[in-house]
Amino acid sequence: MQDLKLISASAKDVDTINRLAILIWNQYYIDIISQNQINYMLDLMYSPKNLSEKIINKNEDFYLIQKQNNYIGFLSVQNKKENFWFLNKFYINQDFASNGFGSKILNELKEMLSIEKLRLTVNRQNFKSINFYFKNGFKIDHVEDFDIGNGYVMNDFVMLWENKKY
Fold first, then answer.
1. Contacts for 131-140 with beta carbons within 8 Å, 24 or more apart?
2. Cα(55)–Cα(117) distance, integer angstroms
3. Checking DSSP bridges between strand 84-92 and strand 117-123, what pairing results, if any?
4. For a Cys-Cys bond, which of 2, 17, 91, 108 suits 24, CB 3.0-4.6 Å?
């Protein structure tokens, strides 16, 4: 797994993140939410314009996940307060899932940013991801529903990981 890297993304990577989002969302969510909701959310969160604004305004720190010379996923985080982060996005192409890459990248991110607490939201029907986060030490903090517009609601678990060293 030495050939797996977490690379800081910039505005020049917007098209790559957009392409990965379209691919991965259609892999992950087609059995969980409707195609119309997938399309709506992709446009809302991953259009080149919206991604550019987030990256340029530093609303989120984006990283590409690279295996050899191929980008296989991406993630984004926000620093909420000292050493307390929010994991906004964490997606890996399903062709590379279930082989330890996600855990390796998550651990690299925690170490690189000296994360003591990491919070995230995950769809309550996304059992594969929920189990991944459980395996990586996250616990369900609470349940929350988010109105995202256009008649769509995200039904999520809010999960929390805390570094037990501190």
1. 132/102, 132/103, 133/159, 133/161, 135/103, 136/102, 136/103, 136/106, 136/161, 137/161
2. 23
3. parallel
4. 91
Note the pLDDT tens digit of each residue in 140-157.
999 999 999 999 999 999
Q: Other CB atoms closer than 10 Å to residue 8's CB: what's the count?
A: 10
In the block, residue with structure tokens 């855990």: 103
Question: What is the Cβ-side half-sphere exposure of residue 101, based on CA atoms within 13 angstroms?
Answer: 24
As a whole number, the mean pLDDT across the chain is: 93
Contact 76, 120 (CB under 8 A): no
C-alpha distance from residue 35 to each of 74, 87, 89 (Å):
21, 24, 19
Decide if 87 contacts 136 (C-beta within 8 A). Answer: no
Residues 65-90 pLDDT 10s: 999 989 999 999 999 888 899 999 99
